[in-house]
Queue: 3 jobs
Job 1
Amino acid sequence: MLFQDIMLGLDRFWADQGCVIALPHDTEVGAGTFYPTTFLRSLGSAPWRVAGVAPSRRPTDGRYGDNPYRFQYFFQYQVLLKPSPLDVQQVYLDSLYALGIDPHAHDIRFVEDNWESPTLGAWGLGWEVWMDGMEITQFTYFQQVGGFDCRPVSVELTYGLERIAMYLQGVDHAFDVEYAPGVTMGALRGDFEAQHCRYNFEESDAELQRLLFDKFEVEAKRLLELGLVHPGYEFVMKASHAFNLLDARGVLSQTERQNYVQRVRRLSEASAREYLSQLGELETAPEAS
Amino acid sequence: MPDLLFEIGTEELPSWYVDEGRAALAQLLEERLAAAGLAAEQVRGFSTPRRLAVLAEGLPERSETREELRRGPAAEVAYDDSGAPTRAARGFAQSSGVEPGALEIRDTERGRYVFARIQRGGDAASGVLPALLAGLVEDLPAPRKMRWADVSTPFMRPVHWLLAMLDDTVLEFEAAGVRSAATTHGHRFLAPGEVRLRHASSYVDVLREAFVLADSDERDEATWRAASEAAGAEGLAAHDDPALRAEVRNLVEYPVAVLGRFGEGYLELPDEVLSTVMIHHQRFFPTHAADGRLARFFVGISNNRVTDEDVVRSGYEQVLEGRLYDARFFWDADRRKSLSQHAWGLSGIGFQKDLGSMADKIARVSDVAGRLAEALDLPREERASLDQALPIFRADLSTDMVYELPELEGVMARAYARAEGLPEEVALALEDGVLPRGPGDRLPATRIGAILAVADRVDKVVGFFALGKRPSGSADPFALRRDGLGIARVLNAQGWRLPLADLVLEGAAPHRANGMEIPAEGEAEVERFLWDRVGSLLNEQGMPVPVVRAAVQGSRSVIDASRRAHLLRSLMGHEEFPDLMALYKRAANLARQEERRRNVKPGLFRNEYEAPLFEALPGARRGVEALLAQVREALPGWDLASPPASPLGELGDGVRAVLALKAPLDAFLDNVLVMVDELEVRGNRLALLREVTEVLRELGALDQLEGA
């Protein structure tokens, strides 16, 4: 199955499950969880179902394209269901059929894997899903987001698209995956990956990123105070990416790193607070201890 | 005598909770049944990744009846002048469900009151159990419960069904948003859907038919049998690792073994690297040939029996090859640099923000290790090896392999040291220095490694205490207790009579040289902390608390304390020794009256009971020395986390020599008035008693032994 058919198949499947198929957000994020359609919309009491491809950037994970599994830029398929349906595991297994995988023909396991994002003030409990020993999906019941307890609880599914495609196509490197007829992932992304790795690890201007982080932080605070949640949160994402670049450049001491994490976290929490406040649910939202 | 079955069906539980949750559920049910007067003859727990269950066999039909006395109003207001019950008494009788005439008056500490005798219990089990079982779902202890959807009851994972039956009858109730029923669920893939139960007692058999082995022992055996058979097909043995076995059996409901293999070329990686990748990343059983060498086959335990096993096998192989590919990449890349070059990287790895980088730390550790080597009189050749190991100690922390697989720290240092041709003693010491990694781990086998291990840990403990980051209560975020236990175990195993106070002083010196303020009280605090670890290790070995206190307070080094503990426990088991201790106590109480130390002067003896006691002292002293020598010889050093290699055995002549003190001491204490007016005589008698207690106190801080 072509890479693009996997994405289209999942779109179709989750659309049929009542999900909004959202387009990728046009700001760099470390994971689909940062998307406003996940981070912000998982807050509050209103039901919400969303799915879609989430291109993600994790500068420290880059390996210049040498490692078959690790990249600084990759595609997740992100699903968020609020409240979490009781049959979500079965629905998930059904979604595998959409990829041409019959779960009865494989060894599929739900293995404990809990998740925590210090920069988002968020954590959850769940599993990584193993198919024949390979991790193909992260499954998380959000317990806390932006420093607030989740009521009701959302469940987030994150498919590792490259891994699934490698498995389905029987290839050993994500760049060998056929994306569209006659076009491999490597042809689409190979240069991009190698050059960005060089940029992330060797060439990025650390002083510029420090400066940008400071400016983004100030701007995020200013906008959130004005009640502009969405533009404000956008600057939180930008600040977070600036921090990720600094981290990859290896210029942060442990203490400094911790400091940046706390600063992003405070911004995330302020965004969550303002979002809930505008929903009129701040009073009833249980603040986590 | 009916049987009660209760099963909580969930989404996949964390593998470690499958055992823990089963035990917790069985215990909680047992407690609640007992409290409700419904104690069962036997309670058995079952569990798989998708269920926790209990079968309570032989339940009474009705709860035990018991009588309770309920206190009512004071007697004086309960009856009027004519002796008739007042309104207060009648109201109390009514609310207690008895006739006013049945009330009785009793004396209590607070005066006379009326009481009603109330019959409790006798309720049908089927009536009591629904609420009791619902309470189990609410109250089952678990370290980290979660919420899901908008269900208000948290649990380890979302609850899907509740099976509750008393023999063949459903016990109906609702908990965690689910109604109980007489149905369970079979294997997720092999027997999906509901399975109806006819009788509580058929639980295990019904589930076995539905491809679920609910009995943990049965599943464990099936897992191991399947793994062994699969490996056996290639003439190999599966690696028997109890922790792996426990984890694997709790990741499946129905174990199916799949034998796979990896490329021969990966066998050039050190065995530990291969095993770690297989075990920690994939939960595969490594296999080995009869000569113990790792083979290129592995066994994966699948949770599904599929039509085409090759699909699963090739999946396992592909994933494992990917991991091994990475590992070999790191192995090759890391070996392009020597360990000395890797050591440069330590300055980029933080240890603790106020204690500097790992490079700073290793500099301090080198300093401490050097001083320990002096103090322990390390032979010259070993000293040379130590000096060779120090600059590259923990250098593997900056290798790619250890970055990716942190559990291989130490193992990689040894492997890379061998690969670059360093002497074997150095290679072994580098690994030994990070041992023990935890409570069950082995200890350094080499002396140099033991010095590194102790120096590394004492640097950390002293440094963190100086920063005020000491453990408190159950909170020990920096695992300092683990380090303290490591120090105690290594010192004891080496049999070094190194005073703990000296060790702490050495550990503090480099921190002080770096300008850190460590007051004397700070050192004393670390020393107490280390002694507490020694004490807890001895306690865990079943050593009585007073014996441990006496041994610890009477010793300066760990090995002296642990030997004394064994000696004292043995002595306390002797029929006459506790009597001697009672006499010791009387003597010590008297001796305390005299602050000044003076020599006993036989010329001042005024009474026939003084000289015999004095004359018994040299023999007793020799006896104490003989006992201490015996215990030194019998217990040459061992891992404090386990019993000594050979037990202490019968105490020899020493014990008779010490006990020879009993008769004269007894006679002295019974017949000699110590506190006479004549000051010189009084002082002489106190000095004699002081000598007696000092001789005995060589055995330990005997004052702690009361009640031992």
Job 2
Amino acid sequence: MSFLAFNSIKELSDKLGDGSLSPVELTGFFLERLKLHGPKLNAVVTIMENRAHKQAFKLKKELEKGKIRSPLHGIPYGGKDLLAAIGAPTSWGAAPYKDRVLKYDATVVSRLERAGAILSAKLAMIELAGGMGYRQPNASFTGPCKTPWNLNYWSGGSSSGSGSAVAAGLVPFAIGSETWGSILSPANNCGVSGLRPTYGRVSRYGAMALSWTLDKLGPLCQTAEDCGLILEAISGFDPHDPSTTRRKYKFETVQKDFRVALIKGNMIGADDSVTKNFEKSLKIIEKFAIVDEITFPEFPYEAVTRMILNAEAASAFEDFIDEGLSHQLTASEDRYNGYSRLTVLAKDYLRALRLRGKMVKIAEEIMQSYDAVLAPTSKRTAAPINQEFRRNAPTTPSIDITGSVGNGAGLPSISVPAGFSEEGLPTCIQFMGKAYDENIIISLAVEYQKRTDWHKKHPKEFE
Amino acid sequence: MLGSKEKIVENLSNLIFESYGSRLTEKEKEEIRKSIEQTFENSVKLHQISLENGDEPFSVFIPYRKEKN
């Protein structure tokens, strides 16, 4: 059965549909992999065996009666442990909450259940989704999460377990969250496909809040196409989350003459392997898209998004800090970093929100003639598990435009694997689109994956 | 921005130390001060872009009515 570990959702769905596999068998298979490999990677917080088995039996009976809820019927998955779910603690990756139980399902969890997906595990994450400004992989009560490609290197974060578990074939897909980089970073370090949807596309009800106007939930999967299937299941208006859009989303690939843009100077400070693989990817992309170079004007993109994040995080965790709970966190810097944010002035926060209005218009205008901005997902491969990121950071100063504009303006982005470094660590590319253009960026990623096989390579130790 | 960086950072740091200082080591206090300094520098960057009176925060308040089923 090991061949199932890295099947796409479509492949698994076909097997479930033709009766060659049952939801009970498939769930049992992935639960065993979670138990066997999860601890090696520090990727799993709680295996939800009872809930998963119960759901699998129910879905098996439905299949026997010819009822298929959706392409996700009978597909197991893992959720980042900031999603409330009945049947397991919801820790937010933080020691003070490791036994805390929330007795309801997040909207994402209930929507996936409605679509027939089976919640099988709560997955590891950086404590409070990085809300205290962590600077090292060891920032979770479950220990530093590892990329399955080399256990001496970090999985990325804050959706650490979501990236690692999908890359190791412990679940067919996982849900992560991103405020600034938390889906794309583990997608990059673990070499899987990861989608950050447009802000407001997916309800955050039942998910930990870090920054109300920046937080997004999205999938990490084996393929770009799988990301579209998951987004269709989890998107849509939710009265419990006032940020959710009433625009309906249906996944479909788009055929058109694509135009993508490179940001001038965006490779400054990139690793040689990232640059080399990006250039190879570019040659492939030029076969199905026109590629131009663009320039983003001078603007304090990072300062705007950082100020919003810091101010909102300070408020979201004010009580946590007041109660002294931050001193129980794992990373030493997370125990005190939160205090400084309590001094963000209201006038600065509001100025950042006002400048955000200018930033979104700059992004819209520059991207107007393009389907996506193409960039490396990260300029660096995964950091060693025992080092602070800043020691591993580029020595040449550079601006994270895709991160600051992408998150500050709430734009969608999809990351897909694009090669490996000499050390065997994945490098990835991202297509960042205009708001609500998920189908376009997914289609670009699908076209790229039709012409490459990086997404079909898997870490040998877990095959 | 009016006021010296050092004085503003010192005052904001003291605000934290007044409330939470007993929980913090000297090293932690120094890290907090550095972090407040970074926030100040971000604030300076934000003030390099001019805004008009009508440039509203890009988040809209919506008066609430419960939806009828």
Job 3
Amino acid sequence: MNELLKRLTGHRLFWPIAILALLLITSAIVSDDFFSITIREGALYGPLINILRYGAVLMLVAVGMTLVIATSGIDLSVGAVVAVSGALACFWISRLDDQNSVGGVLTAVALALGLSVVLGAWNGFLVAGVGIQPIVATLILLVAGRGLAQLITEGQIITVNSAPYATIGTGYLFAFPVSVIIAAAVTALAMLLTRRTALGMLIEAVGGNAEASRLAGIRARRIKVLVYTFSGFCAGVAGLIYSSNVRGADGNNAGLFIELDAILAVVIGGTSLAGGRFTLSGTVVGVLMIQSLTTSIYAMGVPPETSMLFKALVVTAVCLIQSPAFRAKVFGGRRWAARTPRAGEPPGPGAREPGHRVEVRA
Amino acid sequence: MTDARPVLTMRGITKRFPGVTALSEVDFRLFPGEVHALMGENGAGKSTLLKVLTGAYTADSGTVELDGAPVHFATPLQAQQAGISTVYQEVNLCTNLSVAENIFIGREPRRFGAVHWRELRRRAAELLARLQIEIDVSADLGTYSLAIQQMVAIARALDVDAKVLVLDEPTSSLDASEVSELFRVMRRAREAGVAIAFVTHFLDQVYEISDRITVLRNGRLVGEYLTADLPQVQLVKAMIGKDLEALERLEEPKEKASAARTQNQRPVVEAVELGRRGSVAPFSIAIHAGEVVGLAGLLGSGRTEVARLLFGADRADHGRILVNGEPVTVRTPRGAIAHNIAFCSENRRTEGLVGELTVRENIILALQAARGWARPIPRRRQDELVAKYISALQINPPDPNLAVRDLSGGNQQKVMLARWLITEPRLLILDEPTRGIDVGAKAEIQRLVVQLADGGMALLFISAELEEVLRLSHKIAILRDRRVVSEIANSEGVDADRIMATIASGAQES
């Protein structure tokens, strides 16, 4: 029993999941019917479904971000790409003779995703080809992307009235929101691509030691271009969902500050900002945690002007609880202390958790 | 000296890591004014013991006494404040700061609250002058050689009135003249009453500088000896726990019939006037199957640069490479690997291994990279390959799922070798494969080189130790000032003296 508990708490996803559960339970106490899920007209409704629905945009962005961070990079431009993608799609649809034409909407989607991929590849080119530091390289697009979105929408908020396009953000398929299905599909695709092939390991190698990877024959540049391109693609899909949801493109506010939430989700999920080992399942938990926090803040009736501060406090607490060093200090050495590894004990995944490393250099 | 009271006593130190007991009930003491060599094979626990001493690790049990009073260091800072200064293998200084700043970092002389720069520089220059080091203290530390950097670190240690100075392999990347400079500075420190704990893999250095020796083996204390009472043979025996058989077997002269082996054969890899401006002057070299070509030369003579050009790690701007007589383009490591050329870099940590990946992942990395990401090596095949090489090279601990950074230096080197061996290279370039590893592992790697050559592989062997190059190579290319000055067959009458003479005179190719 005790052994089982130790194995459980040692798992790298234990704390993220525990905190997520705690958040959900707190929300349930504060607001009634939090766990209630109802079926209306063959579609699922309820607070939990809403968390998934509103979390879809963040989920997509964070999945792309995870792979970028694993190569020890960062992509600050995702919010801008969200805006550009939505702007282009809405711009195209708004010029259609028949906004409900499926073909026209598909063209708009293809154009928006195509541009997002190009923007992502541009980031990859700056980072891997030119050698600009990722934070600077993607900062360029963070600024320029919003400008591009403004350019496309001519500074206006374009609204569309297209049933096929609205399906992306608000439609239902097999009782589930289409946006959630899209986000889940892209996440699953990323997991398959990285873990069923050798891509994940190569990404981790590049992030862990770029020069050693090059000398081992890994095409590090190509891998970097690939992850930034994928991140652009993910942000593009997120932009479609966002703009479809609000039925319009807003170059100023679409995806604003989403890069910060995404980075936060990745880190809370257990991927180190230093690069190397990454966990997409951790990111999924991180996203759900942040989204339920955002949702429950509204549910709890925290006044909007203090909600950001409240969120910051909770996130700080979450980060502290996840730190083995902090737990050891506060809850006393024995029970939750960073498991001092014992002889003969197989070094499970827990041993890789960043906080478990005892490596201090004077 | 012997009747003095030890300044530092460690008793019953035990430290465990996942799957390994790194130290078990180890005692260690240091007397003021002595150089105490800590000896043992890789993984014997030397570095772990020093890290416990300097507060980087916390022991699971055992006591540490400093000046007779029990102490407990939770952090390196605490140890430092108590008078224990450390110089790690990779010098723990900031190369982007000036020499003077490095010496006084955290203790800068101040005037009106601001750093008093002139005073800072004056005191730094004074301090270094006392150690007879004449350098510009306002220049960035990074502009000086590693030897100078080590000495600056020692100067800092002396200035904080360290009682104990810990030097973890300070000489592993220094050449002979730099080592003697360093030893001069160490003797000054010893005269000042500092107790110096010193780790090295060079036996002759131990006998040159140390007064006392403590030997560890497999995390246990073997014994403490006065250097004068311990003949070298006994020391090695204590370290590896068996007779010198292993070493002696290697001493038997290698099959020199190899000259015949290479005659009338097309070289596996041939460089023709290969060169790169600012790196190494155009050189030509031919390596045959079953042949070991040694590169000899001083530190910085261009040995590594030759290897990097052959492997495409640096791009050549002159000449060409032939593989089996066919001209090929080798512009990237990937290109070289495609022609079955492999390269073990001298810098395992920065250019070799990915520390946080496991032993298994590090071993299959090059093979997987060559196959491309879309064709993963099936897990079962991976496990087979990795298990095979873990046992063939005796990688210890034999756990493929351990993060490679948790392995000792010698075992990391074996992981590097395994990575390349599974790619079945035609030419294997080994840059300092035995540096910083113990005698046992060194002998194993040397034996492996002989075996691989016998099996028909071509090898390029680079080492700062001439004896090693002489022992293993069939042919030796000698470098001086980034130029291949001579190539000689390693036949009768070739010895270290002759090679040294060639290096010294810079004789042109005959």
